[in-house]
Amino acid sequence: MASHAYRPIDRLLAIMARLRDPERGCPWDREQNFATIAPYTIEEAYEVADAIERGDVAALKDELGDLLFQVVFHARMAEEAGQFDFDAVATAIVDKMVRRHPPRVRRRADRSVAAQNEAWEAHKAAERKVGGQGASVLDGVALAYPALLRAAKISRRAARIGFDWPDAVSVIAKIDEEVSEIKWK
To answer: Are the beta carbons of 140 and 153 closer than 8 angstroms?
Structure first.
C-alpha cells in the first residue's frame, strides 16, 4: 500500500509549494495573487462545463484537474498569508455538506427531488442568516457572475418567493398594481 505522503493530492500540494517557493520557485507563480489568478479559476470552471456539455469524459477529467489546481493555488496563497490552508478548505466543505445533509434527511429516501431541493435551499438560507447575510433573498448571488447566469440565479430565487409570472401581460399587471400602491400612499 502506498504511503500517505504519495497520495496524488499530497503530491499536488507539494508541487504548488515548490512553485511558490520564494527563492527557488517559478517566477510567474510566485508573483501571482488572488486577483491575478481569479480569471484563470473562472476559465477553468467554464472549461469543466464545456467538457460536460460536449460529453467528453476524458476532457472532463483533465479540466477537473485544472480546476483543482486553481483551488490548490488559492489555498497556498492563503496559507502563505496566514489565513487558511488546503485542509481548512476541505474541512469547510465537509462541514457544510454534513450540515446540509443531516442524518434525518439522508434517512428520508422517500423525499422527492423537489422536497430535497427545498430543504437544501432552507439550509442555505439559514446559513446566510447566521453569517449575517439573511436580509435579502438575493444575498449570496455573486456579483462576479456573468450577466445571464446572474439573471437566471436571481430569477430562480425570486420565483421561490412567488415573484414569478407565466407571461409578460401578468408582469405588466403586477407593475401597474405596484405603481398604484405608490400613487395612493
So the answer is: no
SS (H, E, C) the chain: CCCHHHCHHHHHHHHHHHHCCCCCCCHHHHCCCHHHHHHHHHHHHHHHHHHHHHCCHHHHHHHHHHHHHHHHHHHHHHHHCCCCCHHHHHHHHHHHHHHHCCHHHHCCCCCCHHHHHHHHHHHHHHHHHHCCCCCCCCCCCCCCCCHHHHHHHHHHHHHHCCCCCCCHHHHHHHHHHHHHHHHCC
Instruction: Copy the grid coordinates of residue 162.
Output: 412567488
Q: Which three cell numbers stand for residue 139?
A: 444575498
Is the pLDDT reported for residue 27 higher than 80? yes
Q: What pTM was computed for the model?
A: 0.70
User: In Å, what is the CA distance from 115 to each residue of 64, 71, 121, 122, 181?
Assistant: 30, 31, 10, 10, 35
